[in-house]
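Entry:
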Amino acid sequence: IAITALNTGMRKGEILGLTWDNLDLKHGFILLNVTKNGERREIPINDTLRGVLQGITRRLDIPYVFYDSITGKHYKDVKRSFKTALRRAGIKDFHFHDLRHTFASHLVMAGVDITTVSRLLGHKSLTMTLRYSHLAPSHMAKALDILDSTLNDKPTAQLLHNLGVSR
């Protein structure tokens, strides 16, 4: 479930309600007919998630991808098991929804444009997506390193002249 969130940016409710009919592993996408904002959304599946989904045993009597193997019912919430996993991993102050933020942040830091990230998340506005895409301090430092190397490649006098700054 967490791997699905990290690799798709899907909301918890979308993941828990995921049925085998929503999946097209052959063509590599998840089709969500009903989303939070009421719009249909097609989400690509990467190789990591495809491998995980192919490893799940499908029961013909249960339409859901993620279900309790004892009761056969789909999960309505994973709060307790998620908290347990976080505690065992030594992770504090983290919530399931933060996986969605992590997904967006990793894409932005990898150079994916904000419009594409917004569409993957199913946002109607770029403003909402900007709230999701947090940059790591190392990523911001790298951006300044790029600026530094660009500025140092040109003589300072020429650079100031190009900027319209007089001595």
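The mean pLDDT is 86.
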